Amino acid sequence: MTADRDPAAPDPEAFDLLGIGIGPFNLSLAALADRVPGLTAVFYDQRPGFSWHPGLLLEGATLQVPFLADLVTLVDPASPWSFLNYLKSRERLFPFYFAERFHVHRAEYDAYCRWVARSLPSTRFGQQVDTVRWDADRGRFEVDHTQLDAHGEAEALARTHARHLVIGVGTEPYVPGPLRPLAEAPTVPVVHSSRYLEERARLLAADHVTVIGSGQSGAEVFLDLLRNRPPGRERLTWLARTPAFAPMEYSKLGLEHFTADYTRYFHGLPEQVRDELVPRQWQLHKGIDAETMAAIHDELYRRTLDGGWPDAVLTPGVAVRTAGLGAQGVELHLEHVEQGTRTRLVTGAAVLATGYRERPLDRLLEPLRPYLRTDAAGRPAVDARYRLELDRRVTGRVYVQNAERHTHGVGAPDLGLAAWRSAVILNDLTGLLTGDEPYPLPARTAFTTFGLAGAGARTPAAATGTAAPRHG
Description:
alpha/beta
């Protein structure tokens, strides 16, 4: 303890910012922080290196956002860590120009992020963060972490100090309860889509395969299986809880839900309204892109040219009630939501394209629990600048990335808002440290006015007192 030290004075032994997790969002923050003079930052991740959904880097699969939604461009187009500069460093800028691609291959985005992660001086892989504590006497966080070897085994224990934290531990595969025992058994051919490529050979060899889930991952897995099974003997079933295999909302005005304007509007809504709204917006982020839907239909249609129909069943509106392993294979007990009918499906293997859920922060933040404010559902309260709401006794700030859908809406996991959110965090942090904001952000990002609070100022009729006409 240093009782004679001014707690407001800078601590040379502590980083200004320590990041936990190095996925695309904290990597974006690290890239933008690299351009802020005098800011000291370090980012830890327990993996040996960067990887982005390796089990779904299917040949030809593309991002669902334009390449401008890289780590930095929408905030700092001149950054050396942009996707275009990555292409330039690989002497591939002209081929990309002639390819005329707005949506790049998923594998190429992964390679770009690995290039940034290897090049930044602030990223540290093979570091497993174990716990976080607040040292009130020194006004900083203590972060205990374990150094791991290439095989994930512990090598050494260490402690790092930081004035502020940012948590970006990402999401984890979600498996519904009825299917969890099967998915956790290593010998049972029931796998989450996040492991599809590593299990692909075993799945293709199965006599019958069922894909469960109607989102983009489910569609891509179904298409890959369909293309690689013989015509007339496809033996495929595709099931979904949603009432339809629906396209993702990709209209220009619909995409404005992934803007800073909508994020601010959503954050200002009452908690109950936010909780009711998110499930209704599933087509904004859980639908299937039109190109993949067309490719599936084209492949199915091609297999009818010689007569007959492909041996493939596509059924939406179906819930898996229970599941088990029988003598003939995996048994799925199904219920059709609208019909109210039930049946049993026996399949040789199943791919669970059932999505991802935010990783719980309970274990990591347990020492901070006495200081942490929560909402009515017990979730961490997150303010408009992505800060966990903490007791005033904690003067350090804890930011979160992609752990705030309940407070900030459907844009939380969207790559298109990565750079903007990173800039908000950095502006807030540097404003505290130096009074500067390194990344000026636009006041408006959408043509849509969300809510009535700001509508009057943009409506000429409101200024004159004349009632605006109603349409529809």
